[in-house]
Write a structure and sequence with these properties.
With 496 residues, the protein is mostly beta strands.
Length: 496
């Protein structure tokens, strides 16, 4: 998402699967769980030799201020990585212990953690659990011990176009090239008496408790940027969903744009990150369904732009904050319109203040041609694998926007080209088909439909979908006055 600057559109020349949707492979155990507690153990994805799981503890007894959950695997499974807790495993016996931020579970409340593990031969769910030494015997809904597609509180939608995958779970891989089909325009500007909009752009999207939430940039008739939030249960309702303008919240007025939204589970808070021109800011909200609940702005960096960025940005612009966390750290990515992607780090426990003055910021990836790695950086964990996917907007030799992609086995690792050229793009007019006349020749800033909504920013490798901004062919206005609209890509060559 570019800073407000007036220039000719053509003068620039010169995000298994994204489980868009919400059918997730789920296995839930009845956990013979316990007087005083109930445990739901859900296998969220499974592949040959490995699996991912979420565990939710509901406290039915007296309030606790710290907890240990114990169980035994029955078929030789082992945990390889765990988040929102610490763990030990001795043979089949597993102990997961709370962290400083999630030890308290009031009566009737729940907490959750997740892990990746290994299996061989079979992967049955544990037969029983104990919380702080007390067997959990509360009733829990059971399903088969084999992964089956079930509707969950994660993304789902039924209308056409629908960001629901047609596959069955996350067993698959990213292809080396992509093809897509596009919806028509799903979201257009809806003005009111104080907001005369000409475009909506830069969508960020999550699905939570049966509703879609889209945070997006808005641009008024004078080229001024702000943000808005809409919500709906079905994509057929997106066009008429009334925006809540975030300049009416404590976020306030002024240049604030390019949102990215996620739920930070360690703090039970929603985060909205965005750019201001001089810093990367965030606001928090305990309830995403209340758009008026966003907090006043806070800056990620104590001294503004990190030194390494100011040393390399030249005539570029500092844009597009993106946060993703693993089990230990959170990383803040950003771009500079000059071929550099930057990465800063904070421990999970210190987030969001742990980025400090940005002195640990590094160039995570770069391109010799700045237009090949321009802006709108997205970074995702690919469900069911040890792969991360980076998607970055590029500008083709014809002046049109497209996306390139890279993969890595670590958020701090080397990024290897996946579909990263104009002839083999991640997404571009050349590999997107439309019903009827294409409404855009530009595939620009947006975000993949995720398979979760938390800080791990995970997508399924199967039947990817990507919410993007496009602009009417032939538009020649300066960048800030272009009539952007929002549509949805659906992958047509999934390997799943």
């Amino acid at each position: 998402m570019r800073l407000t600057r007036r220039r000719s559109w053509l003068a620039a020349v010169g995000a298994t699967a994204v489980a868009a949707a919400g059918l997730t492979a789920t296995v839930e155990t009845a956990a013979q769980a316990a007087t005083g507690c109930q445990v739901a153990y859900n296998v969220t994805s499974q592949w040959q030799g490995g699996f991912g799981a979420n565990v939710t503890i509901t406290n039915l007894g007296s309030a606790v201020t710290s907890w240990q959950l114990t169980w035994s695997f029955t078929a030789g499974q082992s945990i390889s990585q765990l988040w929102n807790g610490s763990y030990t495993q001795s043979g089949a016996a597993v102990t997961v212990t709370s962290l400083s931020y999630n030890g308290s579970i009031p009566t009737g409340s729940s907490t959750a953690f997740g892990f990746n593990g290994a299996w061989s031969g079979s992967n049955p769910v544990p037969a029983s659990f104990s919380l702080n030494g007390v067997p959990c015997t509360g009733s829990v809904t059971s399903t088969s011990s084999s992964a089956t597609a079930t509707t969950s509180a994660s993304p789902s939608a039924s209308a056409s176009p629908s960001p629901s995958p047609t596959g069955t779970g996350s067993t698959g891989s990213l292809p080396n090239s992509f093809t897509w089909s596009s919806s028509g325009v799903l979201i257009s500007p809806l003005s009111d008496t104080t907001h005369n909009l000409i475009s909506v752009k830069d969508p960020s999207v999550v699905h939570y408790n049966g509703r879609w939430y889209v945070l997006m940039s808005t641009v008024n008739s004078a080229g001024g940027y702000s943000m808005a939030q809409i919500s709906f249960t079905d994509w057929s309702q997106a066009a008429t969903a009334q925006p809540y303008y975030l300049d009416q919240t404590p976020i306030g007025t002024g240049y604030k744009t390019a949102p990215m939204v996620f739920y930070f589970a360690p703090q039970n808070l929603w985060y909205l990150t965005y750019q201001t021109g001089s810093n990367m800011d965030y606001a928090t909200n305990p309830d995403i369904s209340n758009p008026a609940g966003w907090s006043a702005p806070h800056a990620f960096y104590s001294n503004g732009m990190p030194t390494i960025i100011s040393q390399n940005i030249g005539t570029g612009y500092w844009v597009d904050s993106w946060v993703i966390c693993d089990s230990a750290n959170c990383y803040l990515f950003s771009a500079d319109d000059k071929g550099h992607i930057y990465r800063s780090a904070s421990t999970l426990a210190q987030f969001p203040t742990g980025f400090g003055d940005g002195s640990n910021t590094v160039i995570a990836a770069s391109a010799a041609n700045p237009h090949d790695m321009f802006e709108a950086d997205n970074v995702y964990k690919v469900d069911g694998s040890n792969t991360y996917l980076m998607i970055v907007e590029a500008i083709g030799t014809d002046g049109h926007r497209l996306f390139h992609s890279w993969t890595s086995t670590s958020l701090t690792g080397t990024w290897t080209p996946l579909a990263a050229t104009q002839t083999n793009p991640f997404a571009a007019a050349s590999n997107v088909t439309f019903t009827g006349t294409p409404w855009t020749n530009d595939i620009s800033s947006g975000e993949a439909i995720r398979s979760n909504y938390d800080q791990t920013v995970t997508i399924s490798p199967c039947h990817l979908q990507y919410l993007y901004q496009g602009v009417a062919p032939g538009s020649t206005q300066s960048y800030s006055l272009l009539p952007w609209r929002i549509g949805l890509l659906t992958q047509t060559n999934s390997t799943c």
